[in-house]
Design goal:
It is built from 4 helices and 5 strands, in the order αββαβαββα. It is of the alpha+beta class. Strands 2-1-3-4-5 form a 5-stranded mixed β-sheet. The two termini are about 15 Å apart. The structure holds tetrahydrodeoxyuridine. Tetrahydrodeoxyuridine (THU) binds next to helix 2.
């Protein structure tokens, strides 16, 4: 599986992707948790696709920001080329340490990553630091589309 694990984004690209995730968090519909999350996906053609969490009065139906972003990307016809994912949460919650994608989102992101044979870097953004982790580190031995082929 090539690419992403060793890849680091240049400073400007990383800052732009994180800014896009911050902007997406501003569109979150999170009236029940009051925990606004934004995600931004970077593709190898430079495209950025964002998502924010979308909650529901039936609480368990909440969609995470990463899942919304991946659904948008797949819905636009993308089937690979995923280089990086930035995730940001609210700055006034938690202890300032970086947010990390929930388990379900790791699996959802993995689908698009495996389709294109990339191992995207996940930028987990906190108020004090950005943690850069390969998806394969967050989700080792992942089940994916190749298993069904
Ligand atoms: N949430 C995300 O959007 N992404 C994650 O990776 C973790 C959690 C959302 C789901 C819910 O709307 C709120 O954050 C609180 O869990």
């Amino acid at each position: 599986m090539g690419g992403g694990a060793e890849m680091t984004l240049d400073e400007k690209t990383e800052a732009k992707l994180i800014a896009a995730a911050h902007e997406a968090a501003g569109h979150a519909y999170a009236p029940y948790s009051d925990y606004q999350v934004g995600a931004a996906l970077l593709f190898d053609d430079g495209a950025v696709i964002t998502g924010s969490n979308v909650e529901n009065s039936s609480y368990g139906l909440a969609l995470c920001a990463e899942t919304v972003a991946i659904a948008r990307a797949l819905g636009e016809g993308r089937r690979g080329g995923l280089q990086a994912v930035a995730v940001v949460g609210p700055e006034d919650k938690g202890d300032g340490s970086p947010i990390t994608p929930c388990g379900r989102c790791r699996q959802v992101v993995n689908e698009l990553a495996q389709l294109g044979g990339t191992d995207p870097v996940v930028l987990c953004v906190g108020s004090d630091e950005v943690r850069r982790v390969a998806l394969s580190t967050l989700l080792p031995h992942a089940f994916g589309p190749a298993h069904l082929a």
